[in-house]
Amino acid sequence: MRIISGEYGGRMIKAVPGSATRPTTDKIKEAIFNLIGPYFDGGRSLDLYAGSGGLSIEGVSRGIEQAVLVDRQFAAIKIIKENVAVTKEEGKFNIIKSSAEQAIQRLSGQKPFDLFYFDPPYAKQTIQADVAKLSENGLIAKEAILMAETDQEANLPEEIGNFKLWKQREYGITVITIYRFEE
Fold it and tell me: Which Gene3D superfamilies match (predicted)?
């Protein structure tokens, strides 16, 4: 795996060993960023199921100012820290070992997020519940973008809270769904 573009483009990153996580392939990562806008002018991102941290690192490489990465597995947190070290800008990343629900509570009251990556385990689609908790805690910025990576069986709705379906693409069994926040 590698960082595809931006400031850290071309640097190699590691996947979490074992089968507990499913890393986003370079092809799908590139497709995601082509859909949500290839580069950013600041902003904050949140990944509640960070795995190796590849999506957040790619986002910061492309201009996101600060990324919060959450995962509950010790092995994932270890790899995220190693991958973030590759950037040599660890200050742009906040790594939290926690469940998604606990992390949302912990982040309550902080500055809202502009970009959300949702790539929970396929068998455990909690996107709608997570978005409701993020909204309750004031963590969604106006005009935020939500990217959901699911399998074809997830059948996400046209709306999740105030997020409205914007774009959707299928890549084999993987479905990328992009939502925009509308008040």
Answer: Vaccinia Virus protein VP39 (3.40.50.150)
